Amino acid sequence: MGGRMHAPASVCRMSDLGGELDTLASGTGFSGVVRIDQSGQIELARAYGFAHRGFEIPNAVDTRFGLASGAKGFTALAVVSLIEEGVLELSTPARSVLGSDLPMIDDGVTVEHLLSHRSGIGDYLDEEAGFEVEEYVMPVPVHELATTADYLAVLDGHASKFAPGERFAYCNAGYVVLALIAERTSGMPFHELVEQRVCRRAGLTDTAFLRSDELPGRTALGYVEVDGAWRSNVFHLPVRGSGDGGIYSTAADMSSFWLAFFAGRIVSADWVSEMVRPRSDAPKHSKRYGLGFWLHASNDAVLLEGYDAGVSFRSVHDPRARVTLTVISNTSDGAWPIARYLENAASS
Prior knowledge:
The chain is an alpha+beta fold. The chain has eleven helices and 15 strands.
């Protein structure tokens, strides 16, 4: 993330930048929603482009979008809620819950290693290996990935990359393993666990793990551009996400999420502090990482971010200034020019 977020005065100025934002959105073909909040008040909310291109249904400020890896923060909170209850500990070995499943995961891997991306486990979607999200193909038919247990088929067979705790390496598989651990120890399906322990506590009415083949009204399809044509991303992603991605939400719900998180309504204030305490520097990403959340490299801003075929998302919250910047797009790269523009405006 580039730029710093400073005093509320800069946000007041940002709320007057609608014309420049419109020009940038038009010039980049942005499709999605932009929202700025300060101290719980909406400073700016605008929608652009189409939620459904075939029927020319426009995006609205309350349209639901996929968040891709933005879901990892929700997964981390569900797991931490179980730790608060004594069902799990940060030191719980993954093996103690997995049993004989996923035998290539090192016996020394703990819940804390998984939450902080320091587990070293092999990844079915290895971002260190380099790939184009629109070209990645799941190793099994996507319609077969509807429950967390279904993901065992893609998690297995990947050798460890390094010893647990050795270093930071962003790992999608680790968060699906966390979902599996949460599901098995709570006795509740993972999607329901997130609904009860995160969404309800935060008052999020438009946030859920939806199936891509039965999206309800007011939900945007994700689009990828192939040979000059826009196509749905339905064949690129699991039909229903799990711990590493796939939740849907709105810009308004993200604003509510940050306020609830920092108010200690999802997990306690002590655990909020623990989750946003830097565990790793991630210079390749120009950020730091806590437990489930990206952290600005040099200030207190906390981020959730997602990038996948037909999805780009960034929501940044500065707890000191109580400022939230959220950009959600239903294209793979659409959010980034808008997010950079807002972050630079906030730093000026």
